[in-house]
Design a protein that fits this description.
heterodimer, A: mainly alpha, two-stranded antiparallel sheet, 6 strands, B: mainly alpha, 10 helices
Chain lengths: 627, 284
């Protein structure tokens, strides 16, 4: 138990220390060592609890509860104040309602609430802890070098507020650990609100009107989710007299689904499912490490975490089906929209929302197969998406653009980063890498449950295939040789990339181990049965992985036994190999652009449909419950 | 042992059969156009000749992608014909095809890149239907394994007519035949010169040809699954499908990519998903 408290408290303490460190170097060392300690302790958590089943812990929490309430009051006042100051009255309104309910609840029932187990740790929390501890920490390390460039080269006008930035990053990690270890829902709610506020501050970091607006949008949606969360807790207490997660899940299995629905609603807002997706799309105005943090290891994963906790209760219920439909629709629509995006970060954002949709779909289905698939998705997505965001950030700082069309020839101008990026991309959609294994598992789970739900996945996946390959193709296409742009890259930026790329590949090789050691025991605990990929298929996947890894070896033959010629340009090449003679004797450069099919898959066109459908699903979700 | 023999048989006989079928295709096509046509073994002569030619490239690494295309196609076919998991076969096939498309990108020529793009668009169009085939087969036979599907009593076609016809619809894409020969084709009437394969020559072009023989046999294997209950009927109908594709190739003009994509998605949704829905409600 001490380790759990350490994992929550240590990043928070580090955050406050960072706030007072003025020297860049000392701060960098502090961040790096704190990140190392966090990674090691999260892995230690696994080793210590490896053979343990789920464990609960009791704690004398009177003073902690008081402190939390005090902090909550402060946060409320702060949020109310900024909402008022920037005339975002919705924000002020939401927080006031939330606070009134909370205050009423605290004063009326506070003395009577009995919390048996405050904290819990099981295989699911351990998986999440490792994701947050390792990937979150890597993002923090990456942020050191990135934010230095960010201020010294790219945003000179902006006030250098890096101390506050790193403070927020670590507070965020602390709150995430709080979310995954809390069994007391009031605690969980407290940490939940902290992630909401710190994401608001991180998104609005560069203080442009756009950033401020997007930050407020994120705040609005997440406060709405928070409100639902709070009502869920109060409902749970008022009618069943408990405020604990495990008991809520147990009640859900017995058919008391109202709290589960309200808390899942909060999960939907936090994991940016349609119709709440716009906040995550807006969040990309923030510096890249923030996007990486929000998209891969934290924030959105907190949303799916809480929904997945209820998965076993959702199985076979109407509520589960509706959640599955929301997830499925989100996956399909955002995958299609991603085709039309040429902004790299936006394409990644859509891909994140899509994959979270897939996880929500699994949670809604709630069978043991679906849960197994969802866990795989969480793990692989966290690693791969973090890698991709960090790569795009590095590229953006060098080529001063994050448009995919400007990334042609990256393989020549930034060979190392582009290889990392390619690993990330194939990791997202191609056999035999992680995300494809997960999608395969999803597909099997859905076909066994209800093949009609599989239709979302089948059509959505082919769209993801299309947009990843065209991006991948863009990177390896070479038109005009560019010089080396990689020079002078900071080690704190490149090392996390190498580690993540290594993890992306390594996890595919170790996937059977991850499954048997972590995922299967958890699924077994809940359902009493589990599944594993058949031995034969694992062997085949491993062979495929080995074969793909041989690809770089073919470069031993680079340039041997071939004659290099210019590309065919209708027989009208002149001067250099990339120019041709156009009409009336003019000299033209050849140019190649990707298809974005704006007309068919445009954001404006499809987004509305997604929002409309998911909105209807959410309304019907509540109508079903009210009945 | 049996697995090993099947793989060996596929590796040796698939290209031979594929080449002969391709020769037949040219002959039949010629007859449809009132020409005599080349000898049946002409495709093999072509490939043997190609191997002796110089390899001209635009980018020095472009041929590696093609080599891996060939390797993974053979790998995929071996999985299929040794009775492995159908979904795994589909994923491996995708991997192979993506190597090919990336080769087109790597060549960095406008024609090959448009070809690669169109090839991708076609993948987006046919991928769902191929997965629907696997899902449909699973619903009927309760297994994804080719070996189990083949030994299922009764013709699977009777349960999956919608899926079969939607598969037939996209088969022309896999064979790169009209009306869906957008990415590249054998015919001289290609607006993209040779599309995806424009910048490939010599051994690499030979590899592409051979890979297509392997791939064609694999696709015919998929067709055969629908009629696997009776070997003779299965073989006859599979051949019939092949000649149907040749006929369609000669009757229809090439369509635009919008038409190829949208019509396949529509066919997949109506016939393919429709079939799944019916099956789901009948079997409940």
């Amino acid at each position: 138990m001490n380790l759990l408290i350490f994992l929550i408290a240590f990043p928070a303490l580090t955050a406050f220390v960072l706030l007072f460190l003025k020297n860049d170097k000392i701060r960098a060392i502090t961040i790096t060592s704190a990140a190392a300690i966090l990674s090691i302790s999260s892995i230690a958590l696994l080793i210590i609890n490896f053979h343990q089943e789920i464990q609960y812990f009791s704690l004398e929490t009177h003073y902690i509860d008081k402190a939390m309430f005090f902090i909550e009051v402060l946060l409320t006042i702060y949020i109310f104040y900024i909402g008022w100051k920037y005339k975002k009255y919705i924000v002020s309104g939401l927080i006031s309602v939330q606070f009134l309910i909370m205050a009423f609840f605290e004063t009326k029932y506070n003395r009577d609430i009995i919390v048996e187990h405050v904290l819990l740790v099981d295989k699911f929390s351990i998986i999440m802890a490792i994701i947050i501890g390792v990937i979150g920490s890597l993002t923090c390390i990456y942020a050191i070098g990135y934010m230095k460039d960010y201020h010294s080269e790219h945003h000179k006008a902006l006030k250098d507020n890096r101390r506050f930035f790193s403070f927020l990053m670590f507070i965020f990690l602390s709150a995430m650990f709080g979310i995954i270890f809390s069994n007391n829902l009031l605690w969980l709610y407290f940490f939940w609100e902290i992630t909401t506020l710190s994401s608001f501050l991180l998104i609005g970091y560069n203080k442009t009107p756009e950033a401020r607006n997007n930050a407020f949008r994120a705040l609005e949606f997440n406060l709405l989710g928070g409100l639902a969360f709070l009502i869920g807790i109060i409902y749970l207490y008022r009618f069943y007299g408990v405020v604990e997660l495990d008991k809520a899940i147990y009640l859900g299995k017995l058919g008391a689904l109202v709290p589960a629905a309200l808390i899942s609603f909060a999960g939907l807002t936090k994991s940016a499912q349609m119709p709440f997706s716009s906040w995550l799309l807006g969040a990309m105005v923030a510096p890249t490490p923030v996007s990486a943090l929000l998209h891969s290891s934290t924030m959105v994963k907190a949303g799916v975490y809480i929904i997945l906790r209820f998965a076993s209760a959702l199985q076979g219920t109407v509520l589960g089906l509706i959640l599955a439909l929301i997830g499925g629709t989100t996956f399909l629509v955002t995958s299609l929209i991603a085709i039309s995006q040429s902004d790299a970060k936006k394409a990644l954002a859509y891909s994140t929302i899509a994959n979270l949709g897939l996880i929500v779909l699994c949670a809604g289905v709630g069978t043991y197969e679906a849960l197994w698939a969802a866990m795989l998705l969480i793990i692989f997505h966290a690693v791969t998406k973090c890698l991709l965001f960090l790569c795009v950030g590095a590229v953006e700082h060098r080529i001063h653009s994050r448009d995919i069309e400007d990334m042609s020839g990256l393989i020549i101008s930034m060979p190392k980063i582009s290889i990392m990026m390619q690993i990330g991309m194939v990791g997202m959609f191609l056999a035999p890498f992680g995300m494809l294994i997960s999608k395969w598992a999803v597909l099997k789970a859905l076909v066994d449950f209800n093949p009609l739900l599989a239709v979302f996945v089948i059509f959505g996946s082919s769209a993801t295939l299309f947009f990843w390959v065209k991006w991948l193709g863009k990177i390896i296409t070479v038109v005009n040789q560019e010089y080396d742009l990689e020079e002078g890259m900071n080690k704190t930026e490149t090392v996390p990339l190498y580690i993540l790329a290594f993890l992306t590949i390594g996890l595919c090789g170790l996937f059977p181990l991850v499954s048997t050691a972590l995922i299967q025991p958890y699924v077994m605990e809940i359902y009493g049965m589990t599944l594993a990929m058949s031995q034969g298929n694992i062997v085949i996947m491993t062979i495929m992985l080995a074969m793909v890894m041989l690809f770089p070896l073919s470069f031993i033959n680079y340039g041997k036994r071939v004659k290099v010629v210019d590309a065919y340009l209708g027989g009208a090449n002149i001067e250099t190999g990339t120019r041709f003679r156009g009409a009336a004797g003019s000299v033209k450069d050849m140019a190649m652009k990707n298809y974005y099919m704006e007309k068919y898959f445009g954001e404006k066109r499809l987004y509305r449909f997604g929002v409309l459908f998911c909105f209807i699903f959410i309304i019907s979700m509540f109508m079903v419950l009210v009945k | 042992m049996k697995t090993f023999l099947m793989i060996l048989a596929y590796i040796i006989f698939a290209p031979v059969l594929g080449a002969v079928l391709s020769g037949l295709d040219r002959r039949v096509t010629a007859r449809m156009q009132s020409r005599v046509g080349p000898p049946i073994l002409q495709p093999i002569y072509d490939v043997l000749k190609l191997i002796q030619k110089d390899s001209l490239v635009v980018r020095r690494s472009q041929n590696f992608y093609v080599a891996f295309f060939l390797v993974f196609i053979i790998f995929t076919g071996s999985l299929f014909f040794s009775g492995k998991d159908l979904l795994l076969v589909i994923f491996a096939l995708t991997l192979a095809d993506i190597f090919f498309v990336l080769g087109g990108y790597k060549a960095s020529s406008p024609y090959s890149i448009i070809g690669a793009h169109r090839s991708l668009i076609q993948m987006m169009a046919y991928e769902p239907i191929i997965i629907l085939v696997a899902v449909g087969m699973y619903m009927v036979t309760k297994s994804f394994y080719v070996a189990d599907i083949v030994s299922h009593p009764g013709q699977i076609f009777y349960h999956l007519p919608g899926i079969f016809f939607s598969f037939l619809y996209i088969l022309a894409m896999k064979f790169s035949k009209s009306p869906f020969d957008l990415a590249y084709s054998h015919h001289a009437h290609q607006e993209l010169v040779k599309g995806l394969t424009t910048e490939f020559s010599g051994k690499s072009l030979a590899m592409i040809e051979v890979a297509h023989w392997y791939e064609n046999m694999l696709m015919l294997g998929f067709v055969w699954l629908f009629f696997a209950d009776n070997i003779l009927v299965g073989a006859a109908l599979t051949l019939a499908v092949y000649f149907f594709i040749i006929l369609v190739d000669n009757v229809f003009a090439r369509v635009k990519w919008e038409m190829a994509l949208m019509s396949s998605l529509l066919v997949g949704l109506l016939l393919g998903v429709g079939n799944i829905i019916v099956l789901f409600f009948i079997r409940r």
